[in-house]
Write a structure and sequence with these properties.
Blueprint lengths: L38 E4 L5 H10 L3 E11 L2 E9 L5 E9 L3
Parallel strand pairs: 1-4
Antiparallel strand pairs: 2-3, 3-4
Protein name: Glyoxalase/fosfomycin resistance/dioxygenase domain-containing protein
Length: about 100
């Protein structure tokens, strides 16, 4: 995977997304994300943590370390990366729950 980022011309151009509103009407117990994000990249379950380590090795800013949760009969694992302009990219994986 290659992610191409472009630097903003001015700090006034930077408008990262805020945390979204929680919604009690999802069809599962999940009510929405706890952190705001701008781009979500789905990756394979076993690739998420090696990708996070690669980002870290290359000087990337891991804003939220990998964490897991459930969404109905699915489990997810996400990590949040902050780019130089303050935007948040999520690396996320999902699979059927093993529980």
């Amino acid at each position: 995977m290659i992610v191409i980022l472009q630097q903003a011309v001015s700090p006034d151009d930077v408008r990262p997304n805020a945390v979204s509103r929680k919604r009690p009407d999802y069809p599962t117990e999940w009510e929405g994300p706890d952190y705001g994000w701008d781009t979500f990249v789905h990756v394979k379950w076993d690739e998420l943590e090696p990708l996070v380590e690669e980002v870290r090795r290359n000087g990337g800013n891991i804003a939220v370390e990998p964490f897991s949760g459930t969404h109905g009969n699915l489990e997810f694992k996400n990590a949040y990366i902050k780019d130089p302009d303050g935007y948040t990219l999520v690396l996320g994986a999902m699979r059927e729950s093993l529980r």
